[in-house]
Every structure is written in C-alpha cells, then in structure tokens.
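Retro notes
What went well: the complex prediction finally ran end to end.
Inputs used:
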Amino acid sequence: MAQMTMIQAITDAMRTELKNNENVLVFGEDVGQNGGVFRATEGLQKEFGEDRVFDTPLAESGIGGLALGLGMTGFRPVMEIQFFGFLFEVMDSVVAQMARMRYRSGGVYNSPVTIRSPFGGGVKTPELHADSLEGLMYQSPGIKVIIPSTPYDAKGLLISAIRDNDPVVFLEHMKLYRSFRGEVPEEEYTIEIGKADVKREGKDVSIITYGAMVHASLKAAEELEKEGISAEVIDLRTISPLDIDTIIASVEKTGRAIVVQEAQKQAGIGAFVVAEINDRAILSLEAPVLRVTAPDTVFPFASAEDVWLPDHKDIVEKAKKVYNF
Amino acid sequence: MKTNTIDAVQDQFETFQILSEDGEVVNEAAMPELSDEQLQELMRRMVYTRIWDQRAISLNRQGRLGFYAPVAGQEASMLGTQFALDKEDWILPGYRDIPQLVFHGLPLYKAFLYSRGHFEGGQIPEGVNVLMPQIIIGAQIIQAAGFGLGLKKKGKKNVAITYTGDGGASQGDFYEGLNFAGAYKANAIFVVQNNRFAISVPVEKQSAAKTIAQKAVAAGIEGIQVDGMDVLAVYAATQQARERAVNGEGPTLIETLTYRYGPHTMAGDDPTRYRTKELDDEWTKKDPLVRFRKFLEGKKLWSEEQENKVVDQAKEDIKEAIKKADGAAKQKVTDLIGFMFEELPYNLKEQMEEYKAKESK
C-alpha cells in the first residue's frame, strides 16, 4: 500500500495498463512531454515512448476521430479532453460515433475507448472548465460514465475502464486531484464498473451522491450524527449504469433519501435517481426523495463559486427536511 | 506592389486528366499500368453500377428500398479510386459511397438492407475492411486519420481511404482530419467528390477557394484535382496517393470533379429546382462510361455484346440480392438491445426481459 493523491492513482492506473497491454495508447493535448496540465500523465512518455504516449493537435473533435480509428485498428485508446467543458467540440465523436459503433454494426465492431477528462468546481477556473456535463453522457445510449471520488476508486475504476470493450467516459473532479491522500495498492486491481460503494453506513436517511459531493456528504453525515440522525452515504462511482440494487437496498432500509449532485437541478443525474427510487421503492418511502443541486444558471463566474456550489450545509438542511417530513 | 498569392496557389492545382471526352489519351506519360483484363474489369464495374443505380431508383420508387443517394455520373470517381486499393485497405464511406463498399467485398443484399434500415446491412463480413456509410458529414474524415495512424503504427502497408462531397469540405471535421493525418503522416487518402452541388447549394457558395484540392495546403499535405469523369486519371491519382502513404510520405487530398445525374437522394429532392438543363447537358457530354467505352472500343477491348452481358448480369444479381434482402428476419427490439454493449447494464437487462415477454406473445 502507498499513500497517493487521486492524480497519482490515475497516473498509476495508466502506467499499469501501458505496461500490461502494448495496445494501450495515451494521447491528448499536452499529455506527452509536458505530462498533462494536471500532471496526470507525468513521466509516462519518458517511460513508454512517444509511440505510446503522445500529444495531438489542438482539436477535440479530431482527437475523438483519432481514438475511434485507433480503436478499430487494434489499439486501446485512452484519450484526454483537457477540460470537460470542451466536450461540445467532440460530442459527435463520443455520442454519435463511438457510443453507436457496436450497435450500428450489429455487434461486429466496437469502440474500446476511454475518455479521461477533468471537471468540477471549487478551484476558481476560467469559463467552461468546471461545468458538470455528466448528465449529457447519462442521456446517451452506448457509453458508460465513471466519476471516482477517492484515489483507491480512481485507480481500480480506470483500469477497468481501459479494459472495457465499450466506450467509457472517466470524469476526474479537479478539486479532488490533490486535496487528500488515500491508501492505494501498488499492484494492479480492478473495481467493477456499475458498482456503487457505501462510504458510510447509516439507518435514517440515504444520501446518494458522486464526485466531490461524496466528501461534502460525508461531512454532512458527521454533523447529522451529532443531531442524532444516522445518514448512509452511497458513492455511486459509476453514474451510468446506476447500481440500482445498492440504491434500492439502502432506501428500503432507511425509508428516506436525498440525491446530491454538483450539477444544476435541470442537469446531472439526480432526476433519474429519484425516478428510479419512485418506481421501485415507493412503498418504503416515509418522505419524498429530495435533491441537493446547483441553481439552474450557467456555471458561476469564479468569484461566485462559493455562493453557488452546493455544500455540506445544503446537504444537512435537505437531509433534515426529509427526516422531519 | 501587386500581390497575387491566390492565383499562385491556384496554379498548383490544375486538373489532372488522361482521357479526353472523346476517349483519346491526352496524357500518355501518366497512363497507369493496367492489363487489358483490368481495363475491361473497370468498364464492367462502371456499367454494372450504372444499371444498379437505375434499378435502385426504381426499387426505391416501388418502396422496395429505403434511403438511397443516386450515383450515376460518379462511377469513375467511385470505382476508379476503389480499384487502386488493396483488399486489406480500409474504406470509410460517406452515405453515397455504397458502390466502393460492394466492390470491396460487401454483399449487395447487405447494401440493400442498409438502405432499408436493417441491422444486417451494417454487419460487415469478416475480412471486408469497410465501415458502414457515414451520415454525419465530416465524421469519416477525422476517423480516417485515426485509421491511417493505426495502420501506420501496426506497420501495415495499407491505407484508409475516405470520401466526402464538395459540401463536406466546409465542415470543421474535414479540416481537422486532414490536419491530424498530416501531423502524424498517417496512411490516409481523402477523396472529395465534387459533384458541384450539396443538395441545392452550388459549390461556389461553399467557399471562395477555386479548387477544393488546394485546401490540402492548410494541412501541409499533397493535394490533387482530378477529372472525376476520367476513370484512368482517378485510378492513377489514387494509386500514387496510396504509394506515397504506404511509403510513409503521408496523406493526400484528391478532389474529383464529377457530377450526379440524379437527385441528391430519393427523399423528394428535385434537381430541376436548382440546376439548369444546360449544365446537365454539359456534364452528360463528359459521361465517364461513354468516354471509357470509346477508349476501349478503340483498343478493340469492348463490344456491345460484352456490355449487354454486364447489364444482364447486374439485373440478375440485383434481383437475387433483393430476394435475399426480403428473406432477412424482421428486427426485434431484443436484437437491438443485444447490440448495445458487450455486457448489458441493469436497465437494458430489464428491458430485454420486458421485450422478450412481449415478443413471445
């Protein structure tokens, strides 16, 4: 075991897979010699050569096309979109091309591409760097979406993503890159895609969340505990597909739930989680399932992040509302 | 001081031609090395495709085919490029580029199933290196850069060839694809079939550039404009581009000047709304079949009898293929669910059960 930040765990996962499989390729803007704008690919080009880890021209759409083509000529591309706000440039490649390849060829072809991209607020980035756009991915049939919240989850899930034979979008929250260290095994291991993790057990209310909101939820759970409310925190880890069994089992146990996301209320996946709970566990509910989200505006100007982003206080408030319904 | 940069660039892209409209060889030095049998095979394929186009239009009108983008007029451009390929080369077609796929090994009935909207049309047989026709104009161009780089990295002496139209050359993905392939010296050939119209919009409205071939300059790659109604010139240009690519010299942009005699697609487009009879007549005179037929007849390599044989064969094959397409099983939702992932997520597993129950009723 080693103590690693999430970014180190991510680098370690790529190193592991570059070593394991000569068809794994890592590419994107500044991922080569520079080691990535966040150092996620630090040292990889030096270790594996320019043939395996390389820079691309500055064009997200072209990177997507490159990944699809490389993926169909026998490689396992791990492409990077520098910030997920730039997704719009490559939306066609991801959603209309890779995500549909297996289907439109009637199962003959596939697109084994991993799309890594940072996102997330709290670090005062300029425009269109921090937006939470995972909801757009959730709505697109044919792709899986992973959002890890710990170094341990990040490594195991990224290795699984790279080994998956269908396209996987792997979203890395910028605020979590270096904010804390965690235990990460040095050897290779995988975490099953589509499996949530109960980060804290509780019996009164289920807090279903992902990304940076996992940590805000854990903090909220501690405060709630002081007031005698026992909260169970479920880190979805994969947001598409959802781990429906873990969600429903928790709600059936606690009888109350809130869904917490950093994205705006009209975005993210909160509404889908609520709908699934209503469909499957309404008879267990003591109260409606409420959501903690950002307001339905464009992502805030940097200096307004503090008042805009949801935080542990919002979670405590919503949890109490559900508890006292 | 008078600057004349634009003219100077334009002058680099003179139309490459081997056969005149009368089937005379006007550029003996560029004549590709093709055996008599290969020349006849090229003619056979062009005649076959012309008949197939006529039949496809009429089958579409009878409701026995669905989506269809006519190809008459573009036979030299389509088949001349494909004829220069190796079996292991990859084709990334646009939606009009079905003939190339069929002559690269896609069974005709699958082309018909694609037209109707049936998954079997996309199930490409093993060893036939083609993608399904691309509907998003330009997407095939960036993907071809990826295929071209992949082939190069695998050390293959093969290329990826992709096609778009004159309108497609205005897309961002068009420029990105050329530029990526150039930056990586990828094994790629980009063909722009300039048939002068993107649905109703004439090529002059796409760009102020006098040629599309010169757009290669922006990517720093080779570009060539070819008489797209001259199958020998198209073949020779593609063969050279292929040579250069497999020798590690990078990609080429080929612009073929061509024309579609029919409508844009069979979905209600009426070319008389935007094309004059004069323009149609002008391009009818350039018909690739007429020109090549004259050339072959001059060499005593083609006769009416041979031509009729091809026509009969084409009609026979089409009849068989349509029959085979008719025999394809009806698509079920459970089929479609099954093609989504290697392993189904929970939602699709549930929906699979739901539709299985529905389908067994």
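What we learned: The interface with chain B takes residues 51, 56-57, 59, 61-62, 64-75, 92-93, 96-97, 102-110, 141-142, 144, 164-166, 194, 240-245 of chain A (CB under 8 Å).
What to try next: split runs per interface for comparison.
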